[in-house]
Amino acid sequence: MQAFTKYKPYETVKLDRREWADKSATVAPRWASSDLRDGNQALANPMSIEQKIAYFKILVEFGFKEIEVAYPSASQTEFDFCRRLIEEGLIPDDVTIGILTPSIEKHIIRSFEALQGAKNINMHLYNPTASNQREVVFKRTKEEIIKLALEGVACIQREVQKFEGKVVFEYSPESFSQTELEYALEVSNAVISAYKPTQENPMILNLPNTLEAGSPNIYADRIEWMCKHIESRESVIISVHPHNDRGCAVASAELAVLAGAQRVEGTMLGNGERAGNVDLVTLAFNYFSQGVDPRLHVENIDAILKRITAITGLHVGERHPYVGSLIYTAFSGTHQDAIKKGMEHRQNNNIDSWEVPYLSIDPRDIKREYKDSIRINSQSGKGGVAYVLKEIYGIEIAKEMQTKIAEEVKNISHKRGTEIRSDEILGIYEEMIQSQKNSWNADKYNKHAAFVSNLALPVVDLLRAKKGEVILDLGCGDGTLALEIQKSGTKVVAVDLSADMVKSAQAKGINASIMSATELPFINQFDVVFSNAVLHWIKESDAVVKKVYDVLKPEGRFVVEFGGLGNVTTVVEAMEKVFQDHKEFGVFENPWYFPSDTEYKALLESHGFRVETIELIPRPTPVDDIINWLDLFANGVTKHLSAEEFALFKEEVRLHVKEELYDQQKGWHVDYVRLRVKAMKV
């Protein structure tokens, strides 16, 4: 005989008209935490009184208004814990504490003793009702089980007369899920009739899934059937206490609420006997994610769970719904790309509702960062890499570079067999663009090259910025000109390859990001692209002009000034001569692009621009010392030299240019020639 044949299918329920299946959640149920009783008894090392007090405070902070704190008749520790809560005034006036007691007189009396002085209590009476417990464990008939329950009710009613606080009565046919439905109704109605609840003073009827043996839909059917058949329904709060033996406790609870249950008992993270109880954290977030107020402070969940796990020794699984460390994390390239695009769509279109692929809720709602949503390994794609760079470091990169970086990241991750940290991705990006840029220091730039911005006012005038225009400052430097342009009432978006410069611009209040002029990700977004003293650093002039055309709106303006033909010729020739004199320096590679006006006009027109103004302007420019100029503008040429070689290089260049560029009275100057352009996208 095969093993599975000894198991019987769970009995279904006949409902004339099943209503719960057509309903949807509109309000969260009342929550009752049983962590300090049901959860505590399932710990390998049960909590001490001090730990239980700390845990109680956390539950209150999280928002629970009903907390089952103990089984005080079972042990002195549990009794003493109840007394501490009451005598030390730790129970807020709006919180009801509950205890569990069997239907035995001495246990009921002891429980009332434990709760003397409390303002609001829940006296939870239970007795087993399932056939296998009645006949095998307790050896009692159905009638005797009902009599046992009613004896407990009578005892509680007597004790209530002596109790000064408010008492809510709760009854559980403890093994409801295994009890014949007709008999569960008979027991429950007998207790209801004996207790005589009213709408003003209702009682709680708890119908637990003590052993989860059937599917959630059958549990919901049982709850709906009971709701339709119990006496005094309007005076009875139906509560459920699902266990998780089949892994369906959350589903069972949700469907039970649709079927008429008004209250759910459970624990944080689902801790409890055997497979555990219903996980109230997951259940609360399920309501939250459907736009229903969970009536618990889920926004503080990480801090709450950190304290709880420290007390209990439990841990939060990496894939635990909503709160696991990896639950908002995507490694898959397709998932990463979808998340990235979903977030960008929501942001760009000012959408309030949350509809992002693969993310059930906004991580920021629980104080997580978007950077936690995507982690990179050999399975990741270019979208994930681009997302990490944008969200963590403010770097937007175009698709071409995304592909390059993603391939490098995959190779490294595959060889290592682990994921790649975000700072490592930044390092890979910076290494790839290093050859495209000089190394800038914002403080040195301000000290020795302020003339770059100071002499740019004519090109700012040529810009003729209008209020409300959106302007891209391409190569913003320290943000001085972007700040000036913003005074016209424009919106400036600034980009630069230098992280140090971007940081300096951001400190001025500029919306600045690290970005390459050849990798601009924008399309038809700007009224103007403005650039000063930048484009001579980028030899891929064709790629830059194409990107500028793409990012401009129709009729958008391109206003730019940079080094043109003849710019710093004396210095360049001297640098080349020093390299020739020192073979150990290697081959001199000119990093600059200095086009003529004719050449650049033809380039612009080949990409669809109409050139309105273009001219070469000789502009000898004073500098404090040619050594400082070389420090700032030549370190890209000499980055492979040692410190001693660089010092020698600067001194020899200085000697070569001194005759032409130094005057005893006026000091140093550099032979600048600027190319100033205004062109329109047509």
Describe this structure in words.
The chain is built from 25 helices and 16 strands. The longest helix is centred in the N-terminal third of the chain and has 21 residues, at 142-162. The strands form two sheets. The chain has an eight-stranded parallel beta barrel with strand order 1-2-3-4-5-6-7-8, surrounded by six helices. Strands 9, 10, 11, 12, 13, 14, 15 and 16 form an eight-stranded mixed beta sheet that branches. It is an alpha/beta fold and 682 residues long. Helix 3 (76-87) runs parallel beside helix 4, helix 4 runs parallel beside helix 6 and helix 6 runs parallel beside helix 7. Helices cover 41% and strands 16% of the residues. The N and C termini lie far apart (82 Å). Helix 7 (181-195) links the parallel strand 5 and strand 6 (203-206). It is elongated, with a radius of gyration of 37 Å. The protein has three domains: 19-312, Aldolase class I (TIM Barrel, Alpha-Beta Barrel); 333-436, no CATH class; 442-681, Vaccinia Virus protein VP39 (Rossmann fold, 3-Layer(aba) Sandwich), CATH 3.40.50.
Percent range for helical residues? 40-55%
> Gap between N and C termini, in Å?
82 Å
CATH class of the largest domain: Alpha Beta
- Unreliable stretches (pLDDT < 50, length at least 5) are 435-442, 444-454
Q: What is the overall number of helices?
A: 25
**Spatial order of the strands in the main sheet?**
1-2-3-4-5-6-7-8
Let me know the CATH homologous superfamily of the largest domain: Aldolase class I
What is the CATH architecture assignment of the largest domain? Alpha-Beta Barrel
| Extended strand count | 16
Estimated share of beta-strand residues = 15-25%
C-alpha Rg (nearest Å): 37 Å
Give the overall pLDDT as a whole number. 89
Biggest pleated sheet: 8 strands, parallel, barrel
How many domain units?
3
Class based on secondary structure composition and strand pairing: alpha/beta
| Overall geometric form | elongated
Q: In CATH terms, what is the fold-level topology of the largest domain?
A: TIM Barrel
